[in-house]
């Protein structure tokens, strides 16, 4: 799969093997679910303190048409996390990853623009890219941090 980082570089495949990945799928123009989930997501990384280094907190856009890498860089800076990565997939990679995680998304036209209706989950992957947990996007930052502490201790 192919992803672009906010600085325009392609993501190296070794990135995924450098720690557990905490992933949220959304888009920067989302009015409600995405900012809430990313805020909780980012705050959980702060609550974890040094333990956060064991995880990669990743936002993957479901709207690579609008969410170009530079826009995503600015978008994720709005959230308080220690290391929040923003990835823009190629269209083929987006379809692949939606299938792997059973992410649902649908472009919905509205006055001169569009929005994207999508599922709302936070996924945890191990270093071999196996999904080990999924949490609802509305999970509190404290609960998410507690759950991630348990996962970190299980190593």
TrEMBL record:
Name of the molecule in the record: SCO family protein
Keywords: Copper, Disulfide bond, Metal-binding
Gene Ontology terms, MF aspect: metal ion binding
Residues in coiled coil: none
Disulfide bonds listed in the record: 30-34
Native species: Leptospira ognonensis
Binding sites annotated in the UniProt record for Cu cation: 30, 34, 118
Source organism phylogeny: Bacteria, Pseudomonadati, Spirochaetota, Spirochaetia, Leptospirales
InterPro entries: SCO1/SenC, Thioredoxin-like_sf
Family stated for the protein in its record: Belongs to the SCO1/2 family.
Gene3D superfamilies xrefs: Glutaredoxin
């Amino acid at each position: 799969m192919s992803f672009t980082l906010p600085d325009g570089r392609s993501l190296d495949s070794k990135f995924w093997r450098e720690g557990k990945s905490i992933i949220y799928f959304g888009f920067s123009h989302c009015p409600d679910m995405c900012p809430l989930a990313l805020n909780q997501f980012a705050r959980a990384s702060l609550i974890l303190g040094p333990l956060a280094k064991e995880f990669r907190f990743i936002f993957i856009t479901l709207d690579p048409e609008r969410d170009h890498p530079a826009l995503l860089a600015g978008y994720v800076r709005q959230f308080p996390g220690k290391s929040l990565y923003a990835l823009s997939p190629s269209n083929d990679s987006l379809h692949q990853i939606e299938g792997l995680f059973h992410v649902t998304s649908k472009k919905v036209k509205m006055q001169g623009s569009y929005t994207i209706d999508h599922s709302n989950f936070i996924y945890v992957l191990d270093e071999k890219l196996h999904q080990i947990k999924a949490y609802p996007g509305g999970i509190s930052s404290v609960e998410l941090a507690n759950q991630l502490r348990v996962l970190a201790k299980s190593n």
